[in-house]
Design a protein that fits this description.
The complex is a heterodimer of chains A (79) and B (396). In chain A, 52% of the residues lie in helices and 15% in strands. Chain A contains 2 helices and 2 strands. Chain A has a two-stranded antiparallel ribbon. In chain A, α1 packs antiparallel against α2. The longest helix of chain A is centred in the middle third of the chain and has 24 residues. The radius of gyration of chain A is 20 Å and the shape is rod-shaped. The N and C termini of chain A lie far apart (44 Å). Chain B is an alpha/beta fold and 396 residues long. In chain B, β4 and β5 form a beta hairpin. In chain B, α5 packs parallel to α9 and α6 runs parallel beside α7. Chain B is rod-shaped. The N and C termini of chain B lie far apart (220 Å). In chain B, 24% of the residues are buried. Classes of the chains: A alpha+beta (79), B alpha/beta (396). Chains A and B meet through α1, α2 and β1 of A and α5, β7 and α10 of B. β1 of chain A pairs parallel with β7 of chain B.
Chain lengths: 79, 396
Amino acid sequence: MKKSEDINFEEAMKNLEEIANELEKNELDLDKAVEKFEEGMELSKKCNEILTNAEKRITILINNGDGNLDEEPFDANQA
Amino acid sequence: MEYNPITVTELNLYIKDKFNKDEYLNNVLIKGEISNFKHHYTGHMYFTLKDENSLIKCIMFKSYTNNLKFVPRDGMKVIVLGTVSVFERDGVYQIYCKAMQEDGLGSLHIAYEELKAKLEKEGLFDPRYKKEIPKMPKCIGVLTSNTGAVIRDIINVSTRRNPNVYIKLLPVPVQGEGAAQKIAEAIKIMNEKKLADVIILARGGGSLEDLWPFNEEIVARAIFASELPVISAVGHETDFSISDFVADLRAPTPSAAAELAVPNISDFVLKLDNYQLRYKNALKKKIEIMRLRFEKCMMRRAFSNPLQNIQDKYLYIDKLNKSMQTNVTLKLQNSKTKMVELVTKLDSLSPLKTLTRGYSILEKDGKIIKSVNNLKKDDEINIRLIDGKAKAKICE
C-alpha cells in the first residue's frame, strides 16, 4: 500500500466507492471480502490523514529582486 | 364665489396633456445615476435616475430593454433617451425610456465587445479547452491585491471549508495602468514554477474602468495558455469580464471562487466515515450469511446426529439376525417332522414288526438263516421271537 502522501486523493475516493460496491454486492468469498475490507479501511484512514493532518499555511510570494520568489507567512488580518 | 371643482383624474389628464404637447419633453436626453433598479418579471425595468440634488422615476418597457447592450444596475452612470410624461393614476411624472447607454464608457464597451467577439471566434472560450478543477488541490494560488476585502474573503471562506488549507498569495495590482501586464506575468510565473494546483484570479466589484485589466487581451491569452486551471472571479455577480469567459471556471464572486477551489473537508470526512460504515456493515452481513449457511449445514442429520446411521445399521443387523433365527428354527422343525414320518415308515417296514405277527427269525453265528441248506444236524441256533430270544438245537 502507498504512503498517504503519495495517494491521489480523487483516485482514492473512487477506489473507496468501488470497494464499497464490491463488498455490498456480496459476491466475494469471505477471504477476499476481509481483504477488501482491510484495504478499504486502510485507504479511508489514509485519506482522513491527508484531510486532517495537513498543515494550515497562508503565504505571500514576494519577488526578492533576482527573479526568484520568497514565500513568507501572510496575515490576512493585516490586509 | 361659485365652486366649480374638477376631479383629480381630470387634473392629472390636463397636466399629462400639457406634458405631451411639449416638444422638448417628448424627446429628451438625461444623464444620471441609476438607483432602485428593478427588473420586473413582466420584463419591464423600473428605476430612479438621480444626481446629487434630485431624482426622477423611470420606466423602460420590455420592447425597449431588448436593445440594451448592458445590464443596468444601481450606481451605474447612464444616459437615457426618453419621453417625460404623466402617469395619471399616481399623479407622477416619469421618464419613459427608449434607449440607455453607460455614460462615458462607450469606447470601452466597444473595445470589450470587439475583443470578446475576436477571442470567441478564435475558440478561447471553447468548453473543450476548459480544464477540470482538482477536487482536492494541495495548494491554491491566489492572484489578487494583497490588501482589501477580496483576499480576506478568500482566506476566510477557504479556512472555513478546510482548516488546513494551503494558500499562496501572489499579489498583483488589480486596476490601473500596467495591471494587465502584471496579472499576465503572475499567471505565467505560477505556471513556470508550478506554485499551485489551481489559480484563483480575483477582484472585487467596481466600474467597468476599474475592472478593465481583466478585459485585456494579454490577460485573456495568459489564462488560455495556463496549464494550471484558472478560476476567474472578477467584480460582482452581474459583471462578466473577458477573463471570466476564458477561465476554466467562472465564479460570481471571490468568495464563491474560494468555495469552488477549496473542498469542504467536513463533507469528505463524513463521506469517509460513511465508507467505513458501509464496509463494516457489508462484512458483518457477509459473516452473518456465512454463519447462517454453516448453521443450516450443521442442522443436517449427518452432523446433528452422526450415530444415527450406525444405529440404523445395528437395527438392520438385528432384523437380519432375527429372521435368520426364525428361518433356522423353522427348518429344524420341518426336518424333525420329516424324520418322525420316516421313522414311522421305517418302523412299519421293520422285520421285528413281522415277529409280532407270530413269525420268528433263525440266526446262526449272528447270521440270518434263509435256507435249510445252511443247516445241518446239531447246529445250535438262535430263535428270535417278538419278546425275546431262545436257543435251539437242530435234531435232524
